[in-house]
Design brief:
By secondary structure, the chain is of the alpha+beta class. The chain folds into three domains: about 110 residues, Serine Threonine Protein Phosphatase 5, Tetratricopeptide repeat; about 190 residues; about 150 residues, 3-Layer(aba) Sandwich (Protein Transport Mog1p, Chain A), CATH 3.40.1000.10. About 20% of the residues lie in helices and about 40% in strands. It contains nine helices and 25 strands. The strands form three sheets. The chain has a 15-stranded mixed beta sheet. It is elongated, with a radius of gyration of 30 Å.
């Protein structure tokens, strides 16, 4: 028996194709008829017989492995065996091995276009991904620190369910405050994790809007010409990468490579991933048993720790000398306002659901404990500075206006050019006490910010609540800012 194996390529889903990829020569074949050492073609036939007729997937795996390893096998036959090998792993629900086998087929047999296409479809359709471990409304908050332990910022990752053109989607959101605020929002297909559209914004670097379709991404970058990026094979967006990893079959020794579009760089980069562990990790949110995942990107490495439980939370990462540690994890629930009380002077503010309120990582004075408030779209950063009146001269505290003018004068000593809008003065109140608000423009090179401030003297303290935002957002955001000011409560 020396019949060449033929693989009819029918249908569109590799998982469904497994029962259709039959060899005509097996119609009457029986392994008992073989008396001499089987040829590579006969090994292939035996593999299909074991898989399809006997249902012995383990025996089929061994036979397909022999075919792939046999140097006398043609490229076509070896590629067929590699494909079937991957499908056997899929039947055994060993998705890590199935993914690796399909990736090997794509890498080692690029001329076998039909099989490469089927393997790519399997991977791109999410068949190799584990079920999503998150639920609608998941929110994970974290602090950012230097290796010395000094806090330099904070952030949040969120996941929400949605729908696009009748298909279920996930919306991944991120909000990171470490110097300039960075905000992103990305919609992906719920099953395959294929990106659909994304928006990215950094207060200093600008904005990027991306739209994805098969094989390419259209990028609209503020201040630049639109750009089209070709996407070779399966490419994930940078802002979903941390979530995609949660759906990979992480285990000690697991390795893979994923392609990631970095919109800010306008290029696709390969990310090599390896998993080790388990390893115990202690963070403010608790103690967790974790997979330790190492990412290699160009000549740099990043380390991430995902919990080994069913949620596979990202509880810590170390990237470019900055360490993030999870402070809280929330799974869904009704939207609620957020509030925070400053621990030293005891004052508090509250804001709508989705906003972040944190202690300022590096206040400009230890005498002035500060809260930092960021809206849910990262448009603004509002700084709430409270200080005891005894730290100022009586002349400075003659009225809210004189205190405000003192603050403007102090602001003019900073690196940015500060200019008061003379017609912006308004009388208002803070906690029932007289207050004034005003607007200044801060300019440094191409960076232009409007600063909407309110100053008051309340219960033995000075109150300075200043909102930094793009000038074009000022009037639209003013009602939300005024609501934040109205929420202020002293001890």
């Amino acid at each position: 028996m020396n019949t060449t194996a033929l693989l009819p390529l029918l249908g569109s889903r590799p998982r469904k194709l497994a029962s259709l990829l039959l060899l005509g020569a097996l119609m009457a074949a029986s392994p008992s008829a073989l008396t001499a050492a089987p040829t590579v073609s006969e090994l292939m036939e035996l593999g299909v017989y074991s898989e399809e007729t006997k249902g012995d997937v383990d025996a089929a795996l061994l036979l397909y492995q022999q075919v792939v390893a046999d140097v006398t096998a043609s490229q076509t036959l070896a590629a067929q065996a590699q494909f079937r090998l991957a499908m056997c792993y899929d039947k055994k629900r060993d998705f890590a091995a199935a993914t690796s086998a399909f990736e090997k087929l794509i890498r080692d047999y690029p001329k076998e276009k039909d099989l490469v296409s089927l393997a790519s479809e399997y991977l791109a359709d999410g068949a190799a991904l584990l079920p999503a471990p998150w639920s609608d409304g998941e929110v994970v908050e974290f602090d950012l620190k230097m290796p010395t332990g000094m806090k330099v910022g904070f952030g949040r990752y969120s996941v929400n369910a949605g729908e696009s053109d009748g298909h279920k989607t996930w919306r991944f959101g991120s909000l990171i405050v470490a110097g300039p605020t960075t905000w992103s929002q990305l919609d992906v297909d719920a099953r395959s994790m294929r990106p659909i559209k994304s928006d990215w914004k950094n207060q200093m670097a600008g904005t990027i809007a991306s739209t994805f379709c098969r094989g390419r991404a259209e990028l609209k970058i503020k201040g630049a010409e639109p750009k089209t990026i070709e996407l070779p094979g399966i490419v994930y967006d940078n802002d979903e990468c941390l979530q995609v990893i949660r759906r990979l079959p992480l285990a000690p020794g697991y390795t893979t490579t994923i392609s990631v579009l970095v919109g800010s760089a306008g290029m696709v980069v390969p990310v090599q991933l390896s998993s080790a562990g388990p390893e115990k990790v202690q963070v403010p949110a608790g103690s967790f048993e974790c997979h330790k995942v190492t990412l290699t990107i160009a000549n740099t490495t990043q380390t991430l720790w995902y919990t080994t439980d069913a949620h596979r939370y990202l509880v810590k990462f170390d990237a470019c000398g900055v360490i993030a540690e999870t402070t809280s994890i929330k799974q869904g629930g009704p939207a609620q306002r957020v509030s925070m009380t400053e621990p030293n002077l005891g004052y508090s503010v509250s804001a709508p659901s989705g906003w972040l309120i944190k202690n300022e990582p590096n206040p400009d004075s230890s005498r002035r404990p500060t809260l930092l408030v960021v809206d849910d779209r990262g448009v603004t950063a509002t700084i709430v500075k409270i200080e005891l009146q005894k730290n100022f001269t009586p002349a400075t505290l003659a009225s809210p206006r004189t205190f405000a003018e003192f603050q403007i004068k102090m602001g003019s000593t900073y690196p940015m050019d500060t200019t008061l809008r003379p017609d912006s003065w308004r009388e208002t109140t803070v906690e029932g006490q007289p207050a004034v608000s005003f607007v200044c423009d801060h300019v440094k090179g191409e960076i232009k910010l409007a600063v909407l401030s309110t100053c008051a003297l309340v219960n033995g303290t000075t109150v300075d609540i200043s909102c930094y935002l793009p000038p074009e957002e000022l009037e639209a955001f003013r009602p939300q800012y005024e609501a934040l000011v109205a929420s202020y409560r002293s001890k």
